[in-house]
Write a structure and sequence with these properties.
This protein has about 170 residues and is of the alpha/beta class. It has 5 helices and 7 strands.
């Protein structure tokens, strides 16, 4: 079994993709080395650019199993710390605004919608995507001014491609 480095990914960008032949999503190189295995999912590090990505994305069935109430009773426990989550989210969007003043904001894995709401409050056209039904329901209930999509980012992209670009 591979082990994750003690830096706990140390700010390394993680990317999910389904490129042919396990190509790197950043540079399309086919050369990578195992990085870690977690819950039977393998992450690899690109030999050329260093981006860490999943070797293979889980199937829709595997994904649904992973995210069926991922936060185990989220409505009572996980989402109880809303003030702290919103404070962190507002700070992160404030940091982002140093580089990007406005535009479209997409939070993939948006959880309860905290970053999406913080982005909207700071002038972004904010959208969220999550595969966990309880998280998406929480986000829609508590932050209804935003657009949330229940499903994978690939399904979101396909839906938007058929309508209008986001």
């Amino acid at each position: 079994m591979l082990r994750r480095p003690s830096s706990d990914f140390g700010g390394v960008r993680l990317v999910l993709t389904n490129q042919p032949n396990d190509a790197c999503p950043a540079c399309l190189s086919g050369e990578s080395k195992p990085f870690t295995v977690h819950d039977r999912m393998t992450l690899v590090r690109c030999d050329d650019c260093g981006v860490i990505h999943m070797a293979k994305l889980p199937s829709p069935t595997q994904l649904a199993g992973l995210y069926d109430d991922a936060y185990d009773g989220a409505t009572t426990d996980y989402f109880a710390k809303v003030d702290a989550k919103m404070r962190r989210s507002r700070h992160r969007v404030h940091q982002l605004r140093k580089h990007v003043n406005s535009g479209r904001f997409l939070d993939v894995g948006c959880n309860g919608g905290f970053m999406v709401e913080a982005a909207r409050l700071q002038g972004f056209d904010a959208h969220g995507v999550d595969v966990d039904p309880k998280s998406a329901a929480y986000a829609r209930e508590h932050y209804p001014a935003n657009d949330y999509f229940l499903g994978t980012v690939q399904a979101f992209a396909e839906k938007k491609r058929r309508r209008a670009p986001v």
